[in-house]
Amino acid sequence: MSTASGSPGFKGILLQMRQVDNDGIVGSWNVSASDTNFQARSCDGASNNVVTHRNNAVKGVTNEFVWTAPTTKISDVKVVATFVQAYQTFWVKVQGPTIQNVNPCDPNPCLSGGTCQQNGGGFTCICPPLFAGPICHLIDVNPCDPNPCLSGGTCQQTGGGFTCICPPSFAGPICHLIGENDIT
């Protein structure tokens, strides 16, 4: 069978993403509403978990469908497609290669004892005290904790350092000097 351009084609399709370990159908498919040849449908009561044909016209072999993985953790998956190649009932089953489930938290990318939490296809690190950054690789030291300013001075963090705001009659970098004449 050929399409109008001379390349091979097919009349119908049943396309699913299945788990390798238990053959369960997972995820959902998206087909453009303007596509007159294909549609996403429900199989087993799930939402749009299969792609199938809308008509028996010959379809080209190059088509694009978008699959969205479920939000819950799943095992490795495989693409399973069954094609109708003629008007008679003639199905050809094609199974794609295994697609491994990639867990961005395995191994743990968080440094300094950080805890990795999977966030969709990515991850977020929960950093322990004194560490910060996307992978807990930065030391988060607050130079104002504990307050280095003496005599009731107020500490303000400035870049990687601090400045003391001294109360009246005190001066110096940490408010340790009395009177304006004692400023060094």
Automatic annotation (TrEMBL):
Keyword Repeat: yes
Disulfide cross-links: 127-136, 166-175
SUPFAM superfamilies documented for this protein: EGF/Laminin
Domain EGF-like: start-end pairs: 101-137, 140-176
Keywords recorded for this protein, A-Z: Disulfide bond, EGF-like domain, Glycoprotein, Repeat, Signal
SMART domains for the chain: EGF, EGF_CA
CDD domains per UniProt: EGF_CA (cd00054), Reeler (cd08544)
Protein name per Swiss-Prot or TrEMBL: Uncharacterized protein
Native organism: Strongylocentrotus purpuratus (Purple sea urchin)
